[in-house]
Write a structure and sequence with these properties.
Structural class: mainly beta
Strand order of the largest sheet: 6-7-8-9-23-19-18-13-16
Distance between the termini: 12 Å
Largest sheet: 9 strands, antiparallel
């Protein structure tokens, strides 16, 4: 995602073809049908446990992570277009769709150029349709990798608009407990690592929660719509002798493993789509000072 020639998302590949040869987490990947880790190799829905089919090779580990659909070959482009307000100069908005027996998902990405103060903002909108005859628990999210070009991460400060932090165990699985926010705002990132969940997000008059990184007059901002009540912020330590100049502000429909925590009586905010119903929400990305 380039703003005035400056790429504001981490994408360590020369082009899409190179990425396709050896895909890894970068840019703005979708996490579905679950976001981040699960407590076990399966999930609970409507009082029934659904185990993952480990023989398919698309789920690995004791704590399966990041869902199934990010690199699926079954997505298809159903629309690519531009109008007076979306994608007028660079890339047209596109819609990807993926259907499964119990649900269908459409992801729309477009550059908005019609609404102030959102001129030049990237909107990523997801629509999930429940095709089954039972309620569908919602556990999706995104894992965007943001960066301020040409400035080391140790010089950035971040804003995390949360009132509470998620308490997690040594596996990074939430315990069901929360504690008051104890990080300063703004938050200097020098020498810091994070892999933490946050809830009770502060919001503007439109219901958006504003996360951001800033340095030398440059700002990259991520805004979560109101149906993203939780976030994970990931700022990993770099390997010895290397740098990792990115941070992830991850919009999530529930805390990590919320569907199983809800079954265990440890999480009460799990969203659900009724039979035949539809859920839609967006998050937005914009940059200034580039």
């Amino acid at each position: 995602m380039k703003v005035h020639g400056h790429n504001i998302v981490h994408f360590p590949y020369a082009d899409i073809g190179e990425f396709a040869q050896k895909p890894a987490q970068c840019a703005i990947p979708l996490l579905a049908p679950w976001a981040n880790r699960m407590t076990e190799q399966g999930f609970w829905a409507n009082g029934k446990k659904y185990g993952f089919n480990l023989g398919l090779g698309n789920v690995r580990g004791a704590l399966p992570i990041h869902g199934l659909l990010g690199n699926s070959p079954l997505w298809r482009v159903t629309e690519a277009a531009a109008d007076a307000h979306s994608g007028p100069r660079h890339q047209p908005p596109g819609v990807l769709e993926r259907a499964r027996p119990h649900g269908a998902m459409a992801v729309r990405a477009r550059i908005r150029d019609d609404l102030q103060p959102d001129r030049g903002v990237l909107e990523v909108r997801v629509t999930v349709t429940n095709l089954s005859s039972q309620p569908m628990p919602l556990m999706i999210g995104f894992h965007p990798y943001y960066r301020i070009p040409d400035i080391p991460r140790d010089e950035w400060v971040a804003h995390i608009p949360a009132r509470q932090r998620v308490v997690a165990d040594e596996r990074l699985i939430p315990t069901g407990e929360f504690k008051p926010m104890d990080l300063p705002s703004p938050l200097p990132l020098k020498g810091r690592t994070l892999d933490d969940g946050f809830i009770d997000l502060e919001r503007d008059s439109m219901g958006r929660a504003h996360f951001s990184i800033e340095a030398a007059g440059r700002t990259v901002e991520a805004m979560f719509g109101p149906k993203y009540p939780a976030a994970v912020v990931w700022e990993p330590a770099p390997p010895p002798g290397q740098t990792r100049d990115f941070i992830c502000f991850e919009p999530m429909t529930a805390v990590t493993s919320g569907v199983n925590l809800a079954h265990d009586g440890k999480y009460s905010a799990l969203q659900s789509i009724p039979a035949g119903g539809r859920w839609t929400e967006s998050f937005w990305v914009r940059a200034s000072g580039m």
